[in-house]
Amino acid sequence: MALLARSATSFGARGVTLTRMTRGRMALVGLAVVLALAVAALAAPSLPLGSPTAIGKDLALRAPTAAEPFGMDDLGRSVLSRVVHAYRISLAVAVGSVLLALVIGGCLGLVAGYAEGLPDQLIMRPLDVLMAFPAILLAIALMSVFGTGALLVSVALAVVYTPVVARVVRASVLATKIEVYVDGARALGATVPRVVLTHILPNAATPVLVQASVLMAIAILIEAALSFLGVGVRPPTPSLGLMLADGRGFMLQAPWMVVFPGVAIMLAVLGFNMLADGLRDWLDPQRARPGA
Asked: 25-47+77-288 in CATH: which number?
């Protein structure tokens, strides 16, 4: 029985180690995917891809070739060039909306979590009303009121994400401000801004960073959905959602018009999700323990 127990313990330890190694590799793969897409998007104008909006009627619906591995769309535009340039819109919307939500929602959640009481109620109850609406429906409503465009998509998503970020920050602050080192800082005479900025905020940032990575993945999906529905980015600006909308009428004749934009969305979302999992395992001290 002792031998069986030792074997089971050894097998369990190997399983935990294997799981950590797998998660670590997945995080590295996710980071590599995100960095590769970001570099391609930033360098898109200088890459030898041609114009994403140049129309060539003689090249319409041409199948993938060595020169154009993603083929041509119904207007003779390079699908590869449009996909790479579309990443500029997708990543800009994802990063911009999440950063704006982090600034606004982070400040609101920080005040609500540290002050509690009446300030907490005044801040969180209106945000709860926003959270009652499905994200995609709220984004569509905002875009229908304020108009279309990448900037407005970013602002609309920031409005959608602000309650989520505020809730995560508030919960982290509530859990952190009762720690012993925070009480020690107060006992030594530290001011409230010093306690918040030096002791509470850095130690409450872990779940916020993980949530930000997840929100970026969701932002790419929502931006594509809004553009697909016609309330997102305006044509002829390259957008993965617009490419899917344009290609749905040619799925039998030219399936590459929807396959490659769809794969591009999948890669971006998968990369951010894998990065979020890696950040969670790396930054969470509970998961770093041998028995975690």
From this structure: 1.10.3720.10
